[in-house]
Amino acid sequence: MLQPEDIFSRRCIWVNGPVIVGAGPSGLAVAADLKRQEVPFIILERANCIASLWQNRTYDRLKLHLPKQFCQLPNLPFPEDFPEYPTKYQFIEYLESYATHFDLRPKFNETVQSAKYDKRFGLWRVQTVLRSELLGYCEFEYICRWLVVATGENAEKVVPEFEGLEDFGGDVLHAGDYKSGERYRGKRVLVVGCGNSGMEVSLDLSNHDASPSMVVRSSVHVLPREILGKSTFELGVTMMKWMPVWLVDKTLLVLTKLLLGNTDKYGLKRPEIGPLELKNTAGKTPVLDIGAFSKIKSGKIKIVPGIAKFGLGKVELVDGRVLQIDSVILATGYRSNVPSWLKENDLAEIGIEKNPFPKGWKGNAGLYAVGFTGRGLSGASFDAMSVAQDIANSWKEETKQQIKTVASRHRRCISHF
Prior knowledge:
Distance between the termini: 61 Å
Protein name: Flavin-containing monooxygenase
GO biological process, one term: auxin biosynthetic process
EC number: 1.-.-.-
Family: Belongs to the FMO family.
């Protein structure tokens, strides 16, 4: 067992290029495009693998919600034999082959403790801790001109506080730790949250003969994943080339009502704002249905309102009903961990989160962010290419100036002799 006293003295390392924090899809995409342009960099990753969210915190049945062409990273498409909606295992295989193809070698098990901009020198100081069974705890400080935040919006689980939950006595699990409904056969499960994760977990539970009740506290857009054999997302993107967003929303909702019926009568009230406009203005993603809604219509997945409090083996709802339950799954989402280590700044203060897509990737003082514009993998890929190109331009210009300076000194030295 490693002890705190096993800390070595901090090593200071100059990086002649950017430091990229995070080896998920966003970090890999930036690194690959930098590699293509021959710009040096390092990638820091706190886990022991790439795409740790996908590898360690996703359920077994997960597939990409969008067609693969909208989820591929820059400069390397998915294999042609992959299905239109790859499984999580196929997506992980794709990411690993992506890292191999571009010879990307992240520094694993290295956690960023702080990143601070040193105004005196115009450089970033990134302090990390490497946890190694062989070496113990090693501390490093990386000095660089550019810092790329690629840890994403889903770095830490969100676990709300509920009155009485500590007295519940049953199994309580975050959706990030959920793998399969097999262990819940015959059990009454309360799923807290009605986003894509909550819907899919409820569907998986029902398919494994559990009895899920899904908590729906607010309005939600439920759309079919496909309309007339075409991806709903792709259809929306195509229509937006020719129509305003409000008209695209209206068209999608009319088609959705024809295919799914009135979702309101089953406890899934739609927001007043259309799904695409709501996504653009509030970042709230619509649910793309892959079978859960038919289970809701048949009563195999029950919809319940908000939670008042928990008790031993039960939950009291805000409408006064009491349900006897065996387990609770919290499909309550994730949040960014950037504020915990990006010192004296946050993404809003330095200008990144204030800038809407497609300009939300660049801050001040050489700080960049990838995957924070709420546009999924396709948006992250766009961010990555923009960031890589911007850094490459600056790096090449600085390198050119350095060469000129060295050449000038060399000429003066020769003339002196």
